[in-house]
């Protein structure tokens, strides 16, 4: 596949999303927000596997694992920073000792402070893409945030910025900022955000797609009767995870998946590889960032790049099948 464009940079058709390698962290009510216990050595091995197959874009956030994801990524990329593109996010405050989220921030002093902390954890002098991590931050209040980000660009601390938001009205306001190059939002074949996709295509903004495998639902591992483990984040904290209900994969989504599975698995693709191919089939502005915990997951997902996107006819067939009652 051809490289994708992210602002001024050519990046691999998929990046690596680094939420899962952050390990445990918690919301203010002490509900888990992380995937679970991690093996840092395995995480670093997986990142290196990604580098070996040509992946050069890595997306994380300061809050993932209360700073731990950034630290692991910084360790993994030590001595390899040149020619790599690193994205991280800001706006969610946390206590690194208790690993608990303790609020939000958007004032200039806090943005500067947290940017310095991310730079230190990532072991880098600059961040390529710095993204606001407050999904529903009011669009009418964004001007001071843009001012702060422009000052960070001028200081050489960051090179560009974006917003991790699922809301079109936020994107419409933010995209006018001088150094805005991307928006990150939830998007997969079972849960598509057509408004944001069309907006990014129209305004030549990169659409960074989180959740491209629907939290594992598009891996093919979960059938109607399979029950998640008791400590699985998708079961323990279901408020923000819609793909699983009462510890099981959502039946409605499984029915939809069954209807399109043969297309996704065409030409010998795995189901996950087909889900990535669908995202690429939406246009050259899309950039999926599947999560990972092991080298095997990274390599298997990366092999989707050799197949390329689904064809226009296949994309249309899927669209029609998903519309069917």
Describe this structure in words.
There is one protein chain. With 325 residues, this protein is of the alpha/beta class. It has a single domain, classed as Alpha-Beta Barrel (TIM Barrel), CATH 3.20.20.100. It is built from 12 helices and 14 strands. The strands form 4 sheets. Strands 3-4-5-8-9-10-11-14 form an 8-stranded parallel β-sheet. A two-stranded antiparallel sheet has the order 1-2. Helix 4 (143-154) links the parallel strand 8 and strand 9 (161-164).
> How many β-strand stretches?
14
Shape assignment: globular
Radius of gyration: 19 Å
According to CATH, what is the class? Answer: Alpha Beta
Overall pLDDT level: 96
Helix content: 25-40%
Order of helices and strands: EEEHEHEEEHEHEHEHEHEEHHEHHH
**Unreliably modeled segments:** none
Spatial gap, N to C terminus: 35 Å
Q: Total helix count?
A: 12
Residues in β-strands, percent: 15-25%
Number of domains: 1
| Major beta-sheet overview | 8 strands, parallel
Query: Strand order within the widest sheet?
Result: 3-4-5-8-9-10-11-14
- Indicate the CATH architecture: Alpha-Beta Barrel
**Quaternary arrangement of the chains shown?**
single chain
CATH H-tier superfamily: NADP-dependent oxidoreductase domain
**Which structural category do the helix and sheet elements fall into?**
alpha/beta
Q: Predict the CATH topology.
A: TIM Barrel
